[in-house]
Specification:
The complex is a heterodimer of chains A (460) and B (97). Chain A is α/β, with parallel strands linked by helices and 460 residues long. Chain A folds into three domains: 78 residues; 184 residues, no CATH class; 170 residues, 3-Layer(aba) Sandwich (Rossmann fold), CATH 3.40.50. Chain A has 17 helices and six strands. In chain A, helix 4 packs parallel to helix 8. Chain B is mainly alpha-helical and 97 residues long. Chain B has a domain of 65 residues. Chain B is 72% helix and 0% strand. In chain B, helix 2 runs antiparallel to helix 4 and helix 3 runs antiparallel to helix 4. The termini of chain B are far apart. Classes of the chains: A alpha/beta (460), B mainly alpha (97). Chains A and B meet through helix 1, helix 2, helix 3, helix 4 and helix 8 of A and helix 1, helix 2, helix 3 and helix 4 of B.
């Protein structure tokens, strides 16, 4: 190893250590920001050191870095917090395509590949391609550019199985004799791009947290495979960290929905084929006016807000915090109880509420709020439905039976903010709405809460 | 032998990753995703090292595109994560007015 290669590799070790420290510091909101900065320093170090390698062409590099940084910075500072899921989906996709391009470029320059390198090169191209096109579909669904519901077509599983078969066959053919198989490499790329679309399109909007987490993992694994292709440790370490992170998040999300990954990926849950039947819980609902809700909240000692995707859609996070502040001034204990799959990506609600200046010590996880639910005076459910449906606990015939929920029905009073009586994503009616202790407060979440804030200001 | 060594690194890192990530609270899952997204932009290193020619070859185009996408990931990912984490405040740090 030449001395310059030695310097580079030592620098990569430092970078890897900084990535690891950065992730470790993400274990608490107090240190997370510094952790992210450390990780960024690690990346900067790796980039600078790489630029010292002899014989690089800085013209192209400069062009790429300038274009990439401008797009990245503009996107990072323009994006609304409610649109974070789309943004992360898009970035996942970019990570995937860059691994694909890297593997392709490497093959183009050095077609003489051993069988092992041939396999990892096809893997890098395949995973990268799937990540890219899959993320683009996820992005389209999240930003409502294409219908976010599950799109199921006949023979879907057969087509996907066929695509996978072709991919595996092509990988073998390619790896055995890489130099003369340029055509097969292109086939792998095309097949990967198709597979990304056909595998994500049947997954419905509320299952997106799982899909994004999974694509996140893929983007890491693609980088990892690219690292094998060029024999670079730092790519493998960083890619494996991201891959592991995505896998864990996927697992947490699946667990929070009590469904297997296979069920999320293949069942077309929430598609038109899952009938939204009218049967299930029926009964009398008790509508409440802003004034009624005001009196309930005004008298409460403790209030837990339970936000869902509806809060994000209505952009109601700021007024919710305003209401929370007024309640606190009134001497009420205020909490925000957050279900792991509320929203469109893991942690979506926490970021929205943090944006609205809700201190993170008031953001309570599901497992921490449920044991003390009996002592909560009022739960205010904002735009959440399936994650508070008691059928998950007590109705064995329900399609969401077994899913952990925020057990708002055990609070003394539940106020449900909702636009209408439409069922949630799972297509089932919510028994909570008919419960003795529930009051329905109909209307747009933001307008409804604004009305409450006005009541507080005039009444208090 | 190289392949075995690299696989060794890969397997150990996966285990390390599991350990690290399972300690991240669900409050921080969105920043975790965008932050790890930025880390997956590490492909930029490979893309930079592949650009060894100043001619407008097909390889140069592939490499430049790879650099562009990876840079978006790195710069955008770290910047947006920082922006998010900045918003997570404790109560006594002026979280609530």
């Amino acid at each position: 190893m030449s001395s310059s290669a030695l310097v580079i590799n030592f620098a990569y070790i430092i970078s890897a250590a900084l990535f690891i420290f950065g992730l470790k510091m993400l274990s608490s909101p107090a240190t997370a920001r510094r952790g992210n900065l450390l990780s960024a320093v690690g990346m900067l170090l790796a980039i600078i050191v790489t630029l010292f390698v002899q014989g690089l062409d800085y013209k192209w590099i400069l062009l790429g870095i300038v274009i990439g940084s401008s797009i990245g910075l503009i996107a990072a500072y323009k994006i609304e917090m409610t649109s974070m899921p789309e943004m992360v989906a898009l970035f996942n996709g970019f990570g995937g395509i860059s691994s694909l391009l890297l593997a392709w470029g490497e093959y183009h320059q050095h077609p003489e590949m051993s069988i092992f390198i041939g396999i990892v090169a096809s893997l890098s191209a395949f995973i990268g391609g799937v990540t890219f096109s899959g993320s683009m579909v996820a992005f389209g669904k999240l930003s409502e550019k294409i219908p976010s519901k599950a799109i199921v077509f006949n023979g879907q599983h057969i087509i996907n199985a066929l695509i996978l078969f072709v991919a595996i066959l092509s990988t073998i053919i390619f790896a055995i004799n890489a130099p003369s198989m340029y055509f097969v490499f292109i086939v792998i790329i095309v097949v990967a791009l198709i597979f990304g679309v056909t595998s994500v399109i049947p997954i419905g909007g509320a299952d997106m947290p799982v899909v994004i987490a999974l694509l996140n993992s893929y983007s890491g694994l693609a980088a990892c495979a690219a690292g094998f292709v060029i024999g670079n440790n730092i790519l493998i370490v960083a890619g494996a960290l991201v891959g592991a992170s995505g896998i864990i998040l996927t697992k947490i999300m699946c667990k929070a929905m009590n469904r297997s990954l296979a069920n999320v990926l293949f069942s077309g849950f929430g598609s038109s084929t899952t009938q939204a039947t009218g049967d299930g819980p029926q009964g009398e609902i008790r509508p409440a006016s802003a004034e009624d809700v005001y009196y309930i909240l005004e008298a409460a000692d403790s209030v837990a807000f339970v936000p869902g995707y509806g809060l994000a859609v209505a952009q109601a996070q700021h007024v919710t915090r305003e209401l929370g502040d007024l309640l606190e001034e009134n001497g009420t204990e205020v909490m925000y109880a957050i279900h792991p799959v509320a929203g469109r990506m893991p942690g979506h609600m926490n970021v929205l509420l943090a944006e609205a200046n809700v201190p993170y010590d008031q953001l309570i996880e599901m497992d921490d709020i449920n044991p003390r639910m009996d002592s909560v005076d009022v739960c205010v459910v904002i735009g959440a439905n399936d994650v508070v449906n008691p059928a998950a606990i007590n109705d064995e015939s329900s399609s969401i039976y077994g899913m952990p929920i925020i057990e708002t029905h055990r609070a003394k009073t539940v106020i449900v903010l909702k636009r209408s009586m439409n069922p949630g994503f799972a297509g089932i009616q919510n028994a909570l709405f008919f419960a003795e202790n529930a009051r329905m407060y109909f209307g747009d979440a933001k307008a409804s809460i604004q009305a409450l804030v006005a009541e507080f200001k005039s009444g208090g | 032998m190289e392949a075995v060594f690299l696989t060794f690194v890969f397997v150990l890192t996966i285990f390390l990753g599991f350990e690290l990530i399972s300690k991240v609270p669900s409050t921080l899952h969105t920043p975790l995703m965008s932050g790890s997204n930025a880390i997956s932009g590490i492909t930029m290193i490979g893309a930079l090292a592949s650009l060894k020619t100043d001619n407008l070859t097909f390889a140069a185009i592939l490499g430049t595109l790879a650099v562009i996408f990876a840079t978006i990931n790195v710069v955008g990912g770290y910047a947006v994560t920082n922006r998010m984490l900045e918003m997570f405040k404790k109560k006594d740090e002026g979280g609530a007015k």
